[in-house]
Design brief:
Pfam families: BPD_transp_1. Its main location: membrane. This is Putative spermidine/putrescine transport system permease protein. Residues 1-26 are annotated as: Disordered. The chain has 13 helices and no strands. It is an all-alpha fold. It has helices at residues 8-12, 32-63, 77-80, 85-117, 124-136, 142-152, 157-165, 180-204, 208-216, 221-249, 253-258, 266-275, 283-315. It has two domains: 52-82, no CATH class; 91-282, MetI-like (MetI-like fold), CATH 1.10.3720.
């Protein structure tokens, strides 16, 4: 008996072609181009593992570990040390310093960024300011501390000049340079250029047509910024302010070079725990302090990522 003919649909349906990267039996095979792309990510992945993941694991493990002098093992004594008065004062001082310098730097930096954004795109002002901000944002540590000490220190040029010519003593109420006001002033020096760098792209994303449309509808300048420009720039401004806070909170070298007595901020407390010759075996306490800083910075950067996600919706 002859075989029955196959259905018409079977004859009309072509056989599936093997896709790129698939071998016999539908098994996928590695694409050389994909391997090259993966190799390009290897240096960045190694950098993240060596300088971020491994140090974080060392801090977390050490924060919950006892020192060799105490027999090793797991302990919560290091975490309980975070509740001591001097540690809490250091966290309060660090947060206050970071918040004050971030707010001042954000406001002044935003005004400077607006002046740059409204200037000619290829003009001299934009090129000079952006180049200077790129350099001054990284100007810190011993160099910045010496610059302020030589300028407005106890024997600084401005201090001596005002005292000799105008009989003005800027330290009549105390040496504020090494306290919260002075450190805020020093930190603001590198916060303002950083704000210009991170906030300028948001200002460049504001289209002139939006203001023209508001003016054509009878809106004033105040109404435009209150109802259009302000709400659009608010997430970017708040996100930049949080970035400035994290930048100041983790700063160490400038305060270490400027403050010679005491440890008012958390990074200096960590230095004392690691290098003190009076209190030995405090290395893991320093790691617990570092863990506290990691948690604070992680929360701040999480909020920053949320705000950046909202900003990217209209910048794109």
């Amino acid at each position: 008996m002859p075989e029955s003919a196959p259905p018409v649909e079977a004859l009309a349906t072509p056989a599936p072609l093997p896709t790129e990267g698939s071998g016999a039996g539908g098994r996928k095979r590695l694409n050389p181009r994909s391997l090259l792309n993966l190799l390009g990510v290897v240096p960045f992945g190694a950098y993240v593992v060596i300088f971020l993941i491994i140090p974080t694991l060392v801090v977390v493990i050490g924060a919950f570990g006892a020192s060799p002098e105490d027999g090793g093992g797991a302990t919560l004594a290091n975490i309980k040390a975070l509740g001591e008065r001097q540690v809490l004062d250091a966290f309060v001082f660090s947060i206050s310093l970071s918040a004050a310098s971030a707010l001042i730097g954000a406001v002044l930096g935003a005004l400077l960024a607006y002046a740059v954004a409204t200037a000619k795109p290829d003009g001299m002002l934009r090129r000079v300011v952006t180049s200077a901000c790129a350099v001054l944002a990284q100007f810190g540590g011993v160099t910045l501390a010496f610059a302020f000490y030589a300028t407005i220190g106890l024997t600084g040029f401005v201090t001596v000049y005002l005292a000799d010519h105008y009989d003005v003593n800027i330290f009549a109420g105390g040496v504020w340079l090494f306290e919260l006001p002075g450190l805020t002033l020093v930190y603001t020096y590198f916060q303002i250029p950083l704000m210009v760098i991170v906030f300028l792209p948001a200002l460049d994303g504001i289209r002139p047509q939006w203001r023209e449309a508001a003016e054509s509808l009878g809106g004033s300048t105040w109404q435009y910024w209150r109802l259009v420009g302000g709400p659009l720039l608010a997430p970017a401004f708040l996100g930049s302010t949080l970035l400035l806070f994290a930048n100041a909170f983790s700063a160490y070298a400038t305060a270490a070079a400027l403050v010679s007595q005491g440890s008012p901020i958390v990074p200096l407390q960590i230095r004392n725990a690691l290098t003190s010759e009076v209190l030995l075996g405090q290395e893991n306490v320093g790691k617990a302090l570092a863990l506290g800083m990691v948690i604070v910075v992680a929360v701040v950067m999480w909020l920053y990522a949320l705000l950046q996600r909202r900003t990217s919706r209209w910048l794109g």
